């Protein structure tokens, strides 16, 4: 996560700039929450990381849960973009390879927001949680149905497609636990290694 | 996690019974911490789940961090038992299969303690954390060296052995995120599915 916010708070008539600033704050908040955990990360910590006073931070958000929801909503929109891109691919094997590639790149590049999407759901309100679970399900369903299609074509290894989908997501969502972009390995190299691992796990030679 | 604690606090001269009771409390605390997260789980929640008053709970522990350390120490001892069992196997492929099998069974059966080992390390004191990281490293090293050995023998798929080890652990440690023993699938069936997924991912046919 490279977003570093250094400019002071400024109110502007230009809504795009204000939106950009809110997006920057969300990314910085995501980094802080990723490092400390949602419960331990205080609004003071987040304000400090954004170079804002706590009052300045409240200009952009109504509170920590609002920030969390916006981070998760942002992460979810990345996942939904992937789903749209992949769902139009007719060949099931190509579709699976694209789902794997897109999801890895989003997780590895998403600045911790996807890790929060998978780990901090309990801190949302019940209504927010239900909405996000529903949106997540759509992507899981696309993956599951692709694996079922591959099974029917005899292209899937001898695995239960539903459990295979869960193992696949677990492997990808776990990347932020061991990979930091500062390491000597690029995101592309990580993507190649994890993709290769998953292709071998799932697809017949 | 099936440990249900229903008996009231009782002081006993029989140290084994007292130790069993402490172990039961740790397992129940593990379940509560797993469900709520360490920060959100209060000593009141843990006491209630143990059918104890808060004062009764403090008879067994000095506080929440002490409980967390005991849970993680317990989880680590299960991992170390696995390492001992596996390290004596001379054939690298058999050793890998045994590491995978043992670790999956421990994670799926360990009542959430292994999930806490992987997710709540930050809440330990720096000294406790350092100790646990050192103990974890021994198991990771055994796995890494096994994968390097298989690479040298031409038995590993075309993968970086160190990244493959991380993917492997991520997949196994993620099991508690999607598997609850109450589902229609037994732990053995889960172990078979996840093992098969990992064998295909790692080993040449």
Account of the protein in words:
The structure is a homodimer of 205-residue chains. The first copy, chain A, has a domain at 74-202: Tetracycline Repressor, domain 2, CATH 1.10.357.10. The first copy, chain A, contains 10 helices and no strands. Chain A has helices at residues 15-36, 43-49, 54-57, 64-87, 92-109, 113-119, 126-152, 161-173, 175-178, 187-202. In chain A, α1 crosses α4 (64-87). The longest helix of chain A is centred in the C-terminal third of the chain and has 27 residues, at 126-152. The interface between A and B is medium-sized, with 33 and 33 residues.
Q: How many H/I helical runs of chain A?
A: 10
Q: Tell me the major beta sheet of chain A.
A: none
Oligomer: homodimer
Determine the strand fraction of chain A and express it as a percent band. under 5%
Strand count of chain A: 0
The end-to-end distance of chain A, rounded to whole angstroms, is 36 Å
**Rg for CA atoms of chain A:** 19 Å
């Amino acid at each position: 996560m490279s977003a570093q916010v250094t400019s002071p708070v400024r109110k502007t008539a230009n809504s795009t700039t204000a939106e950009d600033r809110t997006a920057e704050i969300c990314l910085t908040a995501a980094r802080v929450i990723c490092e400390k955990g949602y419960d331990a990360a205080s609004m003071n910590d987040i304000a400090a990381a954004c170079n804002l006073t706590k009052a300045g931070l409240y200009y952009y958000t109504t509170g920590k849960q609002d920030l969390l929801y916006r981070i998760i909503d942002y992460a979810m929109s990345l996942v939904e973009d992937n789903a749209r891109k992949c769902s139009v691919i007719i060949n099931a094997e190509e579709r699976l390879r694209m789902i794997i590639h897109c999801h890895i790149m989003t997780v590895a590049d998403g600045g911790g927001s996807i890790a929060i999407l998978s780990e901090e759901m309990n801190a949302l309100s019940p209504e927010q949680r239900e909405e996000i679970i529903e949106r997540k399900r759509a992507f899981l369903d696309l993956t599951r149905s692709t694996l079922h299609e591959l099974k029917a074509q005899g292209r899937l290894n001898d695995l239960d497609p539903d459990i295979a989908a869960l193992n696949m997501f677990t492997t990808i969502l776990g990347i932020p636990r061991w990979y930091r972009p500062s390491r000597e390995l690029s995101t592309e190299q990580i993507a190649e290694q994890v993709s290769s691992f998953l292709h071998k796990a799932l697809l017949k030679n």
